[in-house]
Amino acid sequence: MDVAVLGATGDVGRQICTQLVERQVLPTTSRLQLVGRPGGTSGRAVHGLRADLVDAYDEHAPLLDVALDPAEVVADVVVVAAGRTAPAGSGGVPPSRAVLAAANADVFRAYADALAAHGSGSEVVVVVSNPVELGVAILAERLGRHRVVGMGAWLDTLRFRREIAVQLGVRRHRVGGFVGGQHGDDAVPLWSTVRISGLDVAERQRAVARLRQGRTLATFPAEVARAKAELLTVAATDVAAAFALIDSWPPDLRALARPWMTHQSGAKTATGTASATIDLVETILDGRDIVVAGQVALEGEVSVGGSPVHGVLGVPVVLGPEGWSRVLLDPLPPDEDARLAEAGAAVAAACAPWTGAAAVAATSDPPTSDPATPTTGEPPR
Ligand SMILES: NC(=O)c1ccc[n+]([C@@H]2O[C@H](COP(=O)([O-])OP(=O)(O)OC[C@H]3O[C@@H](n4cnc5c(N)ncnc54)[C@H](O)[C@@H]3O)[C@@H](O)[C@H]2O)c1
C-alpha cells in the first residue's frame, strides 16, 4: 500500500512523512510519495527532504519518491497537508478562516481534479489542511464522499480523551468518547459518548458529572472566548503561567484552549497533528474497520436540531480501507444536539461560497469578507 503526502515539506507534512517512516507504518516495499509544488520553495526542498529521510532511516524506509505535478500523485492513501496556514505566534493579524479558505480552496480543487482525472479511483484521502471541512467538501464532491475524511475531529477527540485521562489519573487509551462539529472553536465535545474502561455506567456518570462541574455545552462558546482573552493577558508576560492556568480548567475547555495556546506560543501543533493523521492512515492501511471521529460529507445520516445534515460535519464514523462507511452516533442530549446544529450551520455557511454552483463564481471572484458566522473568524489549530 502506498501513501502520498501533499505539502510534504511543510511543518505538518514533514512531521507526517517522518513519523510514517520512523514508526515503520509502511513496509520497505511500499512507496511514500513526497509531493511539493513546482516553482515554489517546496519544489526544491522536497528533494532534500527525501535525501534527509534516506539518511536517517535507510534500513527500514519505504521507497521514497518525489512528485511535483498533481497529475503524478498516485497512492492508496493521499494525505492533504498542502496549503496556507495561520502563522504561529501572537504577532500580526492572522488570516481569518475565510482568507484561509480562499487560498486553500484552489489547492483542494487542483488536487481533487487531478486525482479525479489521473488517480486509481479508489484512493482514500485524509484532509489535514484547513479549513478541513472545506477540503472535505471539495474533494468529496469530485472523488465520492465516502473516500474522503478530515482528521480535525480525530485530533480534537484525542485531545479531549487526554484531558479526561489526565484528570482521572488514567492512561488515554482507557478513555473513549468523541469530539464532533467543526475543527476549531466550533468543535463539540460529545460528553454523552465518553466511556472509561473499568467503570460501570453509574461510576462513569458520576465521574463525568464531576469532570463537567455542572456545566452544559450551552455556555461552552462563551467559555472558550473568555478563556482565550484571559490567556492572551496572562501570556503577554508569562507563557508558562498561561499553560498552568489551562491546567486549572475542565477537560473540554482545556482540549480547545491548550492547542490554541500552543499556536500562540510560537510553536505549532505539527507533531500532534501528524500523529493523529498517522492513526487514520494506519487504520485505512490496516484493513480493519475502526471507529474514529472525522469530518465527512453527510447526506442525511445524522439529524441535528431536528433536521438531517446535508453537508460536512465532524462525527464518529467507521473507517476502513475503502474510506468511511457508517456514522455511529446515538441520539444526543439537547445541549450536544444544539451545539452540533450550530457547528453544522457554521460549516455550511463557510463552505457555501466555494462548493457546488457557487464554486464557479468563487474561482474567478473570491469573497474578501468572512462569509461564515462561526464563534470566531479564527482559523483552527
Ligand atoms: N486538521 C488539523 O488538525 C490541522 C492541524 C494543524 C495544521 N493544519 C493545517 O495543515 C496545513 C499545513 O500546515 P503547516 O503548518 O504544515 O503549513 P506550512 O506553511 O508549514 O506548510 C504548507 C506546505 O504546503 C505547501 N504547498 C502550498 N501550496 C501547495 C500546492 N499547491 N501543492 C503542494 N504543496 C503546496 C507549501 O509549499 C508548504 O510546504 C494548514 O492548512 C494548516 O492549517 C491542520
Structure characterization notes:
The protein has 381 residues and is of the alpha/beta class. Helix content is 45%, strand content 20%. The strands form three sheets. It has a six-stranded parallel β-sheet, sandwiched between helices. A three-stranded antiparallel β-sheet has the order 9-10-11. Strands 7-8 form a two-stranded antiparallel sheet. α1 (11-22) links the parallel β1 and β2. Residues 364-376 have low confidence and may be disordered. It binds nicotinamide-adenine-dinucleotide. It holds the Pfam family Ldh_1_C. This is Lactate dehydrogenase. Residues 2-141 form the Lactate/malate dehydrogenase N-terminal domain. It comes from Cellulomonas wangleii.
Strand order of the largest sheet: 3-2-1-4-5-6
Mean pLDDT: 92
Q: Hetero groups bound?
A: nicotinamide-adenine-dinucleotide
Give the C-alpha Rg.
Answer: 20 Å
How much helix is in the residues?
40-55%
Strand content: 15-25%
Oligomer: single chain
Number of strands: 11
Specify the CATH homologous superfamily of the domain at 3-152: NAD(P)-binding Rossmann-like Domain
Low-confidence stretches: 364-376
What is the H-and-E element order? EHEHEEHEHEHEEHHHHHEEEHH
Task: Label the structural class.
Answer: alpha/beta
> Ends: how far apart?
29 Å
| Overall form | globular
Q: Which fold does the CATH topology of the domain at 3-152 refer to? A: Rossmann fold
Keywords: NAD, Oxidoreductase
Family: Belongs to the LDH/MDH superfamily. LDH family.
InterPro entries: L-lactate/malate_DH (IPR001557), Lactate/malate_DH_C (IPR022383), Lactate/malate_DH_N (IPR001236), Lactate_DH/Glyco_Ohase_4_C (IPR015955), NAD(P)-bd_dom_sf (IPR036291)
Domain Lactate/malate dehydrogenase C-terminal: 155-247
